[in-house]
């Protein structure tokens, strides 16, 4: 830790004052106090006291869930953490978490810290807070304008990872498993599933060539996108051998996690493969940090994934489901479309994946598996907003009949265009920054169902 | 140079060659060929991976397509294509149709220059230099005039290119930037080599350009699958762009 300067103490004082003021005003106070502290003392994060056990969590998808699981498990054991679960995962949000959880003198009030880190912000965070462990869940294509491509993000993480940080990596992802190759590392994996295939069933797979010699990789199996197990027939490069390997039994809702020859059984906290990956990542990390299998089993039995991205109510037998779909993130949206397509029952979808800026890049739609929505069970798709015509065209390119797609209304009018005749489920797919709109439309749909007596 | 239908020989066996789709597939650009397949299902679509000899080495395709890729991908592609430099030059001279999008065009430049001044020598077929700035991504929408049509699209790149393309640009921008912030001229056009930094499914975003490409390929009946929805989306975008002040994203 760098020597504390007068600027640091000034930043701490002003930041805490801002925090107290914002809280008094009923605000979240999870960003601005940190921003202010960094403006006063740019090296604030280098000088503030860090928890003795500090964990970073990063990756394109799953980092929020992994961070939340870690905080919940630790807090269930009575361990208080410095964390940014309610705030931003960029520089100011992280600085704010440290500021709030430190004394005026700068000493950390907690022994443990769990910090979610936006991949693109690695350079502003890792060199200052120097985590003991970093979990990297996966790296996929994300926002084109911000993240460019997964290889670029892997390069940023590698460049700014501190050499002493131990990495917890997903062996099934050949992109994220290769970050910071000189760092100490532990790999986790989920062994072959009956649903795995020999070839990729998604539009994009960003790891088709060998990272060493560029020959075409031979996949032993593909789970989704580049997730799977591969080897290079030319140079012998292969997916890393996992230190922790989970054999998952979805029917029995359990997994057998073999860690260096020792098998332990854990109950699954979710039946989605994406959350099983998150649970395996959490288990691997906490086992590495010394938590016993019994403590983990006990912890998992007490918690469930609180998914703020998913909200379901049932009115007159119709499920109304809000589901976040991260716009501009083709893999995250593909995952949601896939989930939705596999849900039983007839359904209608209200698409709120819009861009308020008309100049916004929409090319991600063509990296995303809209084809998953091409199902007889999807009866109607209602799309308001600026991008409605682009969305309609993309859906038609995916083979969805034009008569199922309704456009040309405002967000608020959109529920009125749902048929609700024989529909069993209504999905409201909303983007990250529109939970309020989604909530409002959710309520309107409930009212419509009641009024129409559907 | 502008060609009309009468300049193009009507062919039955149209061959469209995609270069290195395993890596040159970023930003939705792969949808260009997927769309072409819908409109011209009888054409033959050849995909060359990095590990095989390109089809064009021994045969002459009707069209060569290559989309954007990672920076490492650019270096692999340059190395792969270097032995074929003279053949590519010959195909450009002989009016083979090329559609090259995003940073794939930099492969054909003199060089790509890194922030530290180090250079990756390109194929040297076009005398431009791309300058990388990996910490500042250039993001913008773009609109311009090509032949008698308005093209719209997006740019998202770590590079800007320098060199005088005023005699061989693909289109003159009416909003947004050309090769760099000072340029009004976007991309390159030499004979039927069409190269542009514009990314994404350019054929889907621009219905008349999709028809133009089909005509260049000698399609007996150029047509647009999902034409009505395509034109609706296109006209909406043109209208929005015309009434919006362009800023970098």
Uncertain residue segments of chain A: none
Strand content of chain A: 15-25%
- Tally of contiguous helical segments of chain A: 13
Secondary-structure element string of chain B: EHEEHHEEEEEEEEEEEHHH
Inertia-based shape of chain A = globular
**CATH architecture assignment name of chain B:** 3-Layer(aba) Sandwich
The number of helical elements of chain B comes to 6
- The level-1 CATH class of the largest domain in chain A: Alpha Beta
CATH architecture of the largest domain in chain A: 3-Layer(aba) Sandwich
Overview of the structural elements:
The complex is a heterodimer of chains A (454) and B (249). Chain A is of the alpha/beta class and 454 residues long. Chain A folds into two domains: 6-302, Mur-like, catalytic domain (UDP-N-acetylmuramoyl-L-alanine:D-glutamate ligase, 3-Layer(aba) Sandwich), CATH 3.40.1190; 310-452, Protein-Tyrosine Phosphatase, Chain A. Helices cover 32% and strands 20% of the residues of chain A. In chain A, strands 2-3-1-4-5-6-9-10-11 form a nine-stranded mixed beta sheet. In chain A, a hairpin with a 4-residue loop joins strand 9 (244-249) and strand 10. The relative contact order of chain A is 0.09. The model of chain A has no long low-confidence stretch (mean pLDDT 94). In chain B, 24% of the residues lie in helices and 28% in strands. Chain B contains six helices and 14 strands. In chain B, the strands form three sheets. In chain B, strands 2-1-3-4-14-13 form a six-stranded mixed beta sheet. Chain B has a four-stranded mixed beta sheet with strand order 6-5-7-10, with no helix packed on it. Chain B has a four-stranded antiparallel beta sheet with strand order 9-8-11-12, covered by helices on one side. Chain B is globular. The model of chain B is unreliable at 1-10 (pLDDT under 50). The interface between A and B is large, with 34 and 44 residues.
């Amino acid at each position: 830790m760098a020597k504390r300067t007068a600027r640091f103490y000034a930043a701490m004082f002003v930041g805490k004052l801002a925090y107290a003021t914002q809280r008094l005003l009923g605000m979240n106070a999870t960003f601005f106090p940190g921003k202010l502290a960094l403006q006063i003392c740019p090296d604030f994060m280098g000088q503030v006291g860090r928890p003795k056990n500090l964990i970073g969590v990063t990756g394109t998808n799953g980092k929020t869930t992994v961070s939340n699981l870690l905080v919940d498990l630790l807090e269930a054991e009575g361990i208080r953490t410095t964390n940014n679960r309610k705030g931003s995962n960029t520089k100011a949000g992280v600085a704010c978490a440290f500021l709030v959880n430190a004394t005026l003198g700068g000493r950390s009030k907690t022994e443990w810290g769990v910090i979610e880190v936006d991949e693109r912000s690695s350079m502003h965070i890792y060199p200052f807070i120097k985590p003991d462990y970093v979990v990297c869940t996966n790296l996929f294509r994300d926002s084109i304008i911000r993240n460019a491509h997964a290889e670029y993000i892997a390069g940023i993480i590698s460049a700014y990872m501190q050499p002493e940080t131990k990495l917890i990596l997903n062996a099934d992802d050949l992109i994220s498993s290769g970050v910071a190759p000189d760092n100490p590392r532990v790999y986790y994996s989920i062994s072959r599933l009956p649903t795995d295939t020999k070839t990729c069933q998604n539009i994009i797979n960003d790891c088709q060539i060998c990272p060493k010699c560029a020959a075409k990789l031979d996949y032993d199996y593909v789970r989704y996108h580049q997730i799977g197990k591969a080897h290079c027939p030319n140079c012998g490069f292969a997916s890393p051998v996992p230190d922790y390997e989970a054999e998952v039994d979805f029917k029995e809702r359990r997994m057998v996690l073999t860690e260096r020859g020792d098998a332990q059984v854990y109950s699954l906290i979710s039946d989605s493969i994406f959350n099983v990956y998150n649970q395996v990542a959490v288990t691997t990390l906490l086992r590495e940090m010394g938590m016993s299998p019994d403590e983990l089993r006990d912890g998992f039995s007490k918690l469930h994934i609180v998914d703020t991205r998913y909200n379901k109510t049932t009115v007159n037998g119709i499920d109304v489901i809000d589901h976040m779909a991260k716009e501009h993130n083709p893999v995250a949206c593909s995952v949601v479309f896939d989930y939705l397509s596999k849900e039983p029952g007839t359904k209608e979808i209200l698409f709120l994946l819009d861009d308020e800026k008309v100049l916004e890049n929409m090319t991600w739609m063509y990296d995303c598996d809209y084809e998953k929505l091409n199902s007889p069970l999807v009866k109607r798709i209602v799309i308001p907003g600026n991008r409605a015509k682009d969305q309609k065209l993309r859906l038609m390119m995916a083979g969805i009949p034009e008569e199922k797609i309704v456009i040309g209304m405002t967000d608020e009018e959109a529920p009125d265009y749902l048929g609700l005749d024989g529909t069993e489920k209504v999905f409201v797919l909303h983007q990250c920054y529109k939970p309020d709109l989604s909530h409002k439309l959710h309520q309107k749909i409930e009212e419509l169902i009641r009024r129409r007596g559907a | 140079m502008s060609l009309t239908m009468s300049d193009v020989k009507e062919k039955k066996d149209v061959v469209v060659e995609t270069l290195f789709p395993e890596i040159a597939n970023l930003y939705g650009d792969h949808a260009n060929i997927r769309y072409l397949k819908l409109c011209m299902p009888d054409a033959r679509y050849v995909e060359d991976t990095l590990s095989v000899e390109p089809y064009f080495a021994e045969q002459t395709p009707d069209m060569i397509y290559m989309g954007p890729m990672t920076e490492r991908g650019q270096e692999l592609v340059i190395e792969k294509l270097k032995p074929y430099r003279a053949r590519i030059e010959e195909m450009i001279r002989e009016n083979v149709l090329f559609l090259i999008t995003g940073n794939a065009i930099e492969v054909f430049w003199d060089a790509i220059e890194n922030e530290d001044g180090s250079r990756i020598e390109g194929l040297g077929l076009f005398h431009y230099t791309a300058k990388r700035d990996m910490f500042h991504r250039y993001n913008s929408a773009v609109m311009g005039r090509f032949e008698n049509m308005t093209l719209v699209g997006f740019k998202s790149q770590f590079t800007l290119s320098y060199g005088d393309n005023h005699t061989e640009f693909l289109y003159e921008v009416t909003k947004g930037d050309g090769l760099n912030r000072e340029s009004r001229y976007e991309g390159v056009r030499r004979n039927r080599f069409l190269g542009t930094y514009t990314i994404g499914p350019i054929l889907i975003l621009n219905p008349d350009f999709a028809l133009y490409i089909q005509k260049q390929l000698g399609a007996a009946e150029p047509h647009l699958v999902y034409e009505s929805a395509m034109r609706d989306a296109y006209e909406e975008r043109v209208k929005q762009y015309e009434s919006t002040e362009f800023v970098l994203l």
